[in-house]
Amino acid sequence: MSKRDYYDVLGVAKGASAEELKKAYRAKAKELHPDRNKDKPEAEAQFKEVNEAYEVLKDADKKAAYDRFGHAAFDGGMGGGGHHPGGRGNADFASAFSDVFDDLFGDFMGGQRGGGRQRAARGSDLRYNLRVTLEEAYAGLQKTITVPSSVQCTACNGSGAEGGAEPTTCPTCSGMGKVRAQQGFFTVERTCPTCSGLGQIIKNPCKSCGGAGRVQKERALSVNIPAGVETGTRIRLAGEGEAGLRGGPPGDLYIFIEVKKHEIFEREANNLYCRVPVSMATAALGGDIEVPTIDGGRSRVKIPAGSQSGNQMRLRGKGMPGLRGGGHGDMFIELAVETPVNLTARQKELLKEFEELSEDNNPESHSFFKSVKSFWDSMKG
C-alpha cells in the first residue's frame, strides 16, 4: 500500500510554516497516543505515521527533499539505501545532496556553504512583567526591579575555563565545528559531537560555572518608566538579558507594562472617563460639583439644568499624556442621575404632589408613551 502524503497525515497545507507543523503534530500526537486509545488498535499505527511525517517535515533539509521528490527521497527511489526517514542512514538526504554541490563548486564560489564553526552562543532574551498604577503611568517613574538571570562568570571571565585560560582547538573537527562522513556516494556534514559546533573545547572547566562561562544571579536594575505608558507597552533594555555561553554576547531584557484598573477613572487611549453620580434635584435644577483629576487636583464642573443620565462634559487636557509627546488627552465626566431611596412619608408626599404637577416636565416620557399609544391603535386597526 502506498504511503500517505506527509502533509495530509498532519492535516496541513504544503506551504505550512514550522510553527504550524509543530502545532499540528502536537494536536495529532495527543489525539492518537496509544495510551489514550487502548480500545482503538489502529491508533498506534496512525500515531507512528504522524511521528514519521513530522520527523521529515520539521527538518528543513529533509523537508526540501520531500517537497521535491516525495517519498522517493527516502525509500531508495533516488538511489539511496532505502532507509526509514526517522533513522540515521536515510537520509540526511537533502544535506548529502547539497554537499555534492559544495564539493563540486565550493572552491569555485569562494568557500564552503555554511562552513566554519559556530560563534559563541548569544544569551537568551528575558521578559519581565511590571504592574504600575494609573497615577504612576500618568506621571512616569524610576523603578528598581530584581531580575533573576544568568550573568558572566567572574572567576573565568566568561571563558568557561579554570583561571580564565583560553579554550583549545577541538581535535575532532580541527576547529571547524563540523565533521564529514562518507555514506555511499554522498559526503554528509554534521555538527561536531565533541565540541557541539563551537570548534573549541575546555580541558579544565571552571569550578564556579562548570564550563558554561555564566552563573545564575539576581540583579537589581533601575528602570525609567516614561509618562503615558499603557498596558502592552514594551520597554527594551539592550544587553540586560542572559549572559552568552562561553563569552557570547548577552541577550536583551524586555519589560512589559500592565496598568492596574483604577477605582475612579477608566482609560481609553489618552482619554479618561469618570462616572459621577448627581442627585435628581441637582440634575433638574442645575448646579456645580467638584470632580477629581488624575494629577490629584480638583476641577469644578457646572451641571446644566435638566441634565439626564449619560450626559457627558469634557475637561480638555485633563487626560493622560501621550507616550511620545503630543500633549494630553481629555477627561470626560459622565453624569449618572441618582434616584433617591429610603424616602420619608413627607418626601413621598412631596414627590407625589410634584408628579401631579409634572405633566409637561418630562418631554421624553410624553413622546415615548404617545408613540406607544399610536402603535397599539394601529395594531387594533
What are the SSEs and their pairings?
Blueprint: H1 6-10, H2 18-32, H3 42-57, H4 60-69, H5 93-105, E1 126-132, H6 134-139, E2 141-152, E3 168-169, E4 178-183, E5 186-191, E6 200-201, E7 214-225, E8 234-237, E9 253-259, E10 265-268, E11 271-279, H7 280-285, E12 287-292, E13 298-303, E14 312-315, E15 331-338, H8 345-356, H9 363-380
Parallel strand pairs: 1-9, 11-15
Antiparallel strand pairs: 2-7, 3-6, 4-5, 8-9, 10-11, 12-13, 14-15
Helix pairs in contact: 2-3
Task: Please give a quick description of this structure.
It is found in: Cytoplasm. With 381 residues, the protein is an alpha+beta fold.
Global mean pLDDT? 81
Number of helices: 9
Q: Unreliable stretches, pLDDT < 50, 5 or more residues?
A: 77-118
Structural class: alpha+beta
Main location: cytoplasm
InterPro entries: DnaJ, DnaJ_C, DnaJ_domain, DnaJ_domain_CS, HSP40/DnaJ_pept-bd, HSP_DnaJ_Cys-rich_dom, HSP_DnaJ_Cys-rich_dom_sf, J_dom_sf
Protein name: Chaperone protein DnaJ
Subunit structure: Homodimer.
Key terms:
chaperone, three-stranded mixed β-sheet, 5 domains, four-stranded mixed β-sheet, 15 strands, alpha+beta
Explain what this protein looks like in three dimensions.
By secondary structure, the chain is an alpha+beta fold. It has 5 domains: 100 residues, Helix Hairpins, CATH 1.10.287; 99 residues, Urease metallochaperone UreE, N-terminal domain (HSP40/DNAj peptide-binding domain, Sandwich), CATH 2.60.260.20; 34 residues, no CATH class; 74 residues, Urease metallochaperone UreE, N-terminal domain (HSP40/DNAj peptide-binding domain, Sandwich), CATH 2.60.260; 36 residues, no CATH class. It is built from 9 helices and 15 strands. Strands 10-11-15-14 form a 4-stranded mixed β-sheet. It is elongated. About 11% of the residues have low confidence. GO terms for molecular function: oxidoreductase activity. It is found in: Cytoplasm. It comes from Mesobacterium hydrothermale. Its main location: cytoplasm.
